[in-house]
Design brief:
about 400 residues, alpha/beta, six-stranded parallel β-sheet, six-stranded mixed β-sheet, globular
């Protein structure tokens, strides 16, 4: 039950959200949440009361895993969730206010906001996906993020932490917690965890296992894991898992989502069926027509680890591949990370560099030996490809701009 002040704050927020929509300024979730928080600073805590909440965080995969977690939790009842990915306080307020009677919540939360958000909503489950370099000019250094998460988790010893034991940094964040469900969710990007976050010594990798040379810190035995066909869990659980979403990384996301939902009482088979049916996440992965001659599938990537995973999902038999890069503040204005991404091996498909920073990308593609053309406008870049299906990979603001122009 929220206070009178909180009800007034929510009403004002709803008005701001409506005004934003009717004036065409946006969906209004952020402005609605900001207005409500300005009027009542305790609004997030009040909206979180009485719910069993799953908080999902990490550098990559937050939106997808949250969408899958919400689907799995929906087998238990109504779920409040920030489906559009607004993952800071204002977006969380908007998501919870939109579903006031839902007793369950699945919330994507920015890594640096997890401690104070957890203090407000007291989550039942915290899902830790992965940590890698993001926009360093905006987000910060990842060992600092790991320490911040570790300190935040220490204040919530009653929560269950569902942590990716293949990720060294997230394992470190969860290692001392009393209630951890370990998931072998994959860790294809190891460039940001070559040293131990606890001792500073070298991390030694032997197949799937890893350990620190400087202290007793090693990969825990997983409670959940997956392969190309099945998901496996406690007590000999083994269920077929055929996802709609592409890529090995999404099998790891799905496994953590199922583990989180089962922790809150979901039937494992029902949870797997629910995550398998997820086919789109805030516009990602969808295929749309572009004019009379093309279809385009849209993929999003925001940092080196995410780009490497997204590149592995591209259909190299498509009529063309468009890679679109901007350098606005949400993307990170420093694009030097392009040189950490392996762009090689596009021998059989036309590649087009696009976006506001398409020239920077074109230089990187040239050094990678990738034959390409440069068309800054992403829609025009798609149309420049031979007729047929085009794979489009874009970073954050380039993706948003493209979505606004597509049906």
């Amino acid at each position: 039950m929220v206070s009178v002040r909180a009800r007034a704050a929510l009403a004002a927020g709803a008005g701001a959200r409506w005004a934003s929509r009717v004036t065409g300024r946006g969906a209004g979730a952020m402005i609605g949440g900001l207005v409500a928080m300005t009027i009542d600073r305790s609004i997030l805590q009040q909206l979180g009361q009485g719910r069993r909440t799953v908080v999902v965080t990490g550098t990559n995969g937050k939106s997808t895993t949250t969408r899958m977690t919400a689907a799995a939790l929906a087998t238990l009842g109504p779920v409040a969730t920030n489906a559009e990915g607004a993952n800071m306080d204002a977006g969380l307020v908007a998501a919870l206010a939109a579903a006031p009677t839902a007793s369950l919540a699945a919330l994507e939360v920015d890594e640096m906001h997890v401690p104070h958000v957890s203090d407000a909503v007291t989550p039942s489950v915290i899902v830790l996906l992965n940590l890698s370099r993001d926009q360093l000019d905006r987000v910060g250094e990842i060992n600092h993020i790991e320490r911040t998460l570790r300190a935040g988790l220490a204040r919530h010893s009653a929560a269950v932490v569902v942590a990716n034991c293949d990720d060294v940094l997230m394992t470190s964040a969860a290692y001392d917690h009393p209630h951890v469900v370990w998931v072998a969710a994959g860790g294809g990007w190891a460039s940001d965890s070559v040293s131990c976050p606890r001792s500073g010594e070298v991390i030694v990798r032997e197949g799937a296992d890893w350990h620190s040379t400087g202290c007793d810190f090693h990969r825990p035995e997983p409670d959940w894991w997956y392969d190309d066909t099945h998901i496996y869990g406690p007590g000999g659980l083994a269920l077929p898992m055929a996802l709609t979403l592409p890529g090995t990384v999404n099998r790891g996301n799905a496994t953590q989502a199922v583990a989180a939902a089962v922790t809150l009482g979901a039937d494992p088979a029902a949870a797997v069926a629910a995550v398998a049916a997820v086919d789109e996440v805030a516009g990602r992965y969808r295929t749309v027509p572009v004019g009379p001659a093309h279809t385009a599938r849209l993929l999003l990537a925001k940092n080196p680890a995410g780009w490497q995973e997204a590149l592995s999902m591209l259909d190299r038999d498509a009529a063309g591949v468009v890679i679109s890069v901007n350098g606005q503040v949400p993307d990170g204005e420093d694009l030097s990370w392009l040189w950490d991404v392996r762009f090689e091996h596009f021998e059989n498909v036309p590649v087009v560099a696009a976006g506001e920073r398409g020239t920077d990308l074109a230089v990187r593609l040239g050094y990678a030996g990738v034959e390409h053309t440069l068309v800054h406008d992403t829609m025009a870049a798609i149309r420049s490809c031979p007729p047929g299906h085009v794979e489009v990979l874009a970073n954050y603001t380039a993706f948003l701009q493209l979505n606004r122009r597509l049906p």
